[in-house]
Amino acid sequence: MAVNTLERRAFLGALLGALSAPRGRSADRSKPNVIIILADDLGYGDLGCYGSSLPTPNLNRMAKEGARLTRFYSASPVCSPSRAAFLTGRYPVRTGVVNVLMSDSKTGLSPSETTIPRVLKNNGYRTACFGKWHLGSDPQFAPNLHGFDEYFGVPYSNDMDPLPLLKNSSVVLKSCDQESLTDRFTDQAVDFIGRSSDTPFFLYLAHTAPHIPIAPAERFKGKSGHGIYGDIVMELDYSVGRVLEAVNANGLDDNTLIIFTSDNGPWYQGSAGNLQGRKGSTYEGGVREPFIARMPGRIPAGILCSGVSSAMDLLPTIASLCGANLPVSVDGVDILPALVGDKPYVDRDVLLFFDGWQLQCARWGPWKLHFARYNSFAWTVDPAGGRFNLPLHPPELYNVDEDSGEGYDMAPESPDVVATITKMVAEKLQTFPDNVRSAWRDTLSQATEGTPVGALPQKRSN
Fold this sequence. Notes:
The chain has helices at 3-20, 57-65, 79-88, 92-95, 116-121, 181-195, 227-249, 284-287, 314-322, 336-339, 415-428, 434-449; strands at residues 33-39, 67-73, 126-132, 150-154, 165-167, 170-173, 201-206, 256-262, 288-294, 303-305, 309-310, 351-355, 358-364, 367-374, 387-399, 453-456. The chain is of the alpha/beta class. The protein folds into 2 domains: 3-339, Alkaline Phosphatase, subunit A (3-Layer(aba) Sandwich), CATH 3.40.720; 351-456, Arylsulfatase, C-terminal domain. A hairpin with a 2-residue loop joins strand 12 (351-355) and strand 13 (358-364). It is globular.
């Protein structure tokens, strides 16, 4: 395999970009650069630094040189809502993006929402999004309307048809060669880093990998020793290595925060480690994600944080790091003190998990209280009669710090914890949209009757 040759080419390309970058003015070192690399359907147990045997040397190095979080959660067990939440710092039910958007969906993330790129752009940042968008394919929801100066990628999941490749609002290709996507997105990212070394920038690199259909580039096929899924994760890791090289070659290492995480748990392939559940489930395996943050100039090497954190925390954390004003109220909290090692915990109250408009469970400290559960996972074939939300009576309580598999219900012996969390949830939901509060009332009332709340026939989640 010619990976060594490819690594040399990538390094030389990044170095050439650094030497040819505009020198009319020096970068504002008081404003750190931010890069977020988002995998698609990567499981909590898929990286070497999280216990996997898959080859991920670059991500392992990132974790060794920075911070690794062990209780980091997406805001949804499926794609579109989780992406809306991390960009806005708000629960998906507040933005209205609560289910997977299909290729023909006429809805999306409203341009009126305050997003990470918009906040940073207003603070003098150059912004770019390369890869999968999946927050509305109609022109009115385009990335360029959400604060991104540049966009290159696909409008939705790579299993949807047709799959065009877009540059801003123009169609570059009507149909993508899936094996080339990781390279294409990474090439754009490396080029952007080289062109932006004279100004603070925000880069969102959203890979389609390892979402199905799994299509690694030819040079990675059969090279991981762990089948095609291992091959695509290996290619994803190689892409991360190229980004790290580009940042270093442009002299930006100490002033660039690089974050790597995933949008939700694994789908048909991949590993959730020792967690129960997968994509589409609010069990731990569907919502707990790998999270690595590296910034040598600010984050000490080897930080390990077990505080409960969320993708919604990225907006307030990045705003804090970059000295940007946060003009709206968000649901996320600033986790920068945990990332830099000032605190071993995260200051937050109860964290909620939704499936659609329905509240499913809540996390508070070591506890996770399940109020309801659908009769099937969103990533499986719909059962006869459709999907139903089934209120649990009584709710199920798990100490997920000690029981990550959520196998031993502690509700009967911890009624005070159940009551406390239930009260906190009820109080928190008072600020949520009417349909969320109505669904919550239905869950509470139907739980005593043992009847399902509303059939939800759905298309396959992606």
